[in-house]
Structures are given as C-alpha cells and as structure tokens.
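Might I ask for a little of your time on a matter of protein folding? What I wish to show you is a protein chain and, alongside it, a tokenised description of its three-dimensional fold. I should value your view on which stretches of the chain appear to form regular backbone elements. You will find the record immediately after this paragraph:
***
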Amino acid sequence: MKRDVTIRLGQKEYILITDSSEEEFLKVTNEIQREYHRLSSQASKAEIDEILIVMIANLILNQLKLEDKLNSCVSKINEVLSKYPKSGERTKNQE
C-alpha cells in the first residue's frame, strides 16, 4: 500500500511516496538525514541542492563499487564451480 512520508532536510520538507514497510523506510530516512547532517556540517555554506548532489554522487559511486565487488565474487564462484561436474553429468571415474 502506497503512502506519503515527509522528510525534513535543513529548512525544506519533502514528501516521498513509498510502498516499503515502515521499518525499511525509517532506515532509509534516518540514513538520508544522517548523511545530510554530516555533509552539511562539513560544508556549512553549501546549498541544500549542492549537498543532495554530493549525496547522490556518493550513492552511485558506492553502488558501482558494490557491483564490481559482486561481479568479482560471482566470477570466483563460477570459477570454483567449473571445477566440479554439473548435476547429471558423469565424471570419467563414473564411466
């Protein structure tokens, strides 16, 4: 069920629409607010949109790093699995 949730950053309020559980969305909003406050305290003269752009860039950078790490893990798993026969295949010892 979709519902509106309000989040306040600096002097602005944003209304977000979500169908996530309340617990999930609380984690998200808490993380947004935590990161916003961290960045705004480091750059006190920055405008809210500048801070939000930095937050977006950081999120995308983290996502790309995680995707690379995931791809590396999948490759390693596939490499290990390739050493074992697939289900239903016979090994030379079984023939």
About this structure: The chain has one domain: 3-81. Residues 29 and 81 are 40 Å apart (CA to CA). Helices lie at 22-42, 48-81. The two ends are 57 Å apart (CA to CA).
